[in-house]
Design a protein that fits this description.
The chain is an alpha+beta fold. It contains eleven helices and 15 strands. The longest helix has 23 residues. The mean pLDDT is about 95.
């Protein structure tokens, strides 16, 4: 999270969930105001912190973000908006930056007011350091089992820059800005138009290509902060811009894969690759439908080589498909050819479906479009977690 120059992070325990003892409030802060870009939930029911942060991102600059887990501050009315703004003001005062430059994000139970008395005390304990990234990534976890961080270095013509990020998400994840919370940082010097366009494309190729359960959250927030602390010349259209965009996309894709692998109750990651579609967009649409299908997800959990569920998902995606031009592979084994059954070893396919990462590949005859999506299997664990989320 703090691999990019000019950023620090930290975490503290506020007891957002009464009786909890783990860190549950986090902060990411830059040494100076940054160029900022953001992509937010497309759910029509929007949490208070999304309202506040979305408005501030439109201004083009931010210097930090305060985040909490355990409470979404969603469906909490005017009080929720006041609480979100107060969180930002408290964090800004703690770190010495202008309140208007502090973003805010929350995740957790919907419809419960924030315990501001405890949050005030927790934010007062926040200290941001260069090695505080992992603590921040852990503090924003809810039903996540592991923290999610990734960083890459990108060599530009005017010097080396770094892109890093953290994310949380395990449930309420579906293509439509599908992550709970994600902060990406870079020390590259960029303009706001490039930052916003690049982040949106990165979201389309990563977080909009994962599905855990078909539900989109009220709080989905993806933010990019660019400090310019690497000292490179401002990135202009051309090879450097393409390299930096690829680095941002790589960080987002790795974090998206981690979210899918850590899906609630999941035992394995599912990667769908589609080739030969009419366009890249149609290929991505088909791949999303495969990882979204509960029937496919359940079959993978049970290691049942029922390829018919996969080909049905292909047909349900709303893309151009020739029914007699669909080949399906599970792992390295072809299970369908030309839209009909292929001869295959069911035991070998079942073994492939038991791997930690299961590859489903579909080859069409409609064009050159390619796309990928990520999901997870569907287990009894998912039902148990969500049957007892507030009790």
């Amino acid at each position: 999270m703090t691999a990019a120059r000019g950023f620090t992070a930290g975490a503290a325990s506020a007891g957002v969930k009464e009786g909890a003892r783990r860190d549950d409030v986090a902060i990411v802060v830059a040494d100076a105001p940054c160029i900022v870009a953001g992509v937010f939930t497309q759910c029509q029911v929007v949490a208070a912190p999304v309202v506040v942060s979305r408005d501030r991102v439109r201004g083009g600059h931010a210097q930090g973000m305060v985040l909490n887990s355990g409470n979404a501050n969603a469906c909490t009315g005017e009080q929720g908006l006041r609480d979100a703004r107060e969180m930002a003001e408290l964090a800004a005062a703690r770190t010495g930056i202008h309140p208007a430059l502090m973003l805010v994000a929350s995740t957790g139970v919907i419809g419960v007011p924030l315990p501001m008395d405890r949050l005030r005390q927790g934010i007062e304990q926040l200290t941001a350091t260069e090695d505080g990234g992992e603590a921040a990534a852990r503090a924003i976890m809810t039903t996540d089992l592991v923290p999610k961080e990734h960083s890459v270095e990108v060599q530009l013509s005017t010097g080396r820059v770094t892109v890093g990020g953290m994310a949380k998400g395990a449930g309420m994840v579906h293509p439509n800005m599908a992550t709970m919370l994600c902060v990406v940082t870079t020390d590259a010097d960029v303009d706001q138009r490039f930052a916003q366009a690049t982040l949106q494309r990165a979201a389309d190729l990563s977080f909009n290509q994962i599905s855990v359960d078909g539900d989109t959250s009220t709080n989905d927030t993806l933010v990019l902060l660019a400090s310019g602390a690497a000292g490179n010349t401002r990135v202009a259209p051309g090879p450097d811009a393409e390299k930096l965009a690829t680095g941002i996309e790589e960080v987002c894709s790795m974090l998206a894969r981690m979210v899918a692998r850590d899906g609630e109750g999941a035992t394995r990651l599912v990667e769908a690759r589609v080739q030969g579609a009419r366009s890249d967009e149609q290929a991505r649409r088909i791949a999303r439908e495969i990882v979204r299908s509960n029937l496919v997800k359940a079959a993978i959990y049970g290691r049942d080589p029922n390829w018919g569920r996969i080909i049905a998902a292909v047909g349900n995606a709303g893309a151009s498909v020739n029914p007699t031009g669909v080949d399906v592979f599970i792992g390295d084994v072809q299970v369908a050819k030309g839209g009909a059954a292929a001869s295959f070893d069911a035991a070998a396919v079942s073994d492939a479906m038991g791997a930690d990462e299961v590859l489903v590949r579909v080859v069409l005859d409609r064009g050159t479009g390619e796309g990928m999506a990520w999901g997870c299997d569907l287990t009894e664990g998912y039902v148990k977690i969500n049957a007892e989320y507030t009790t």
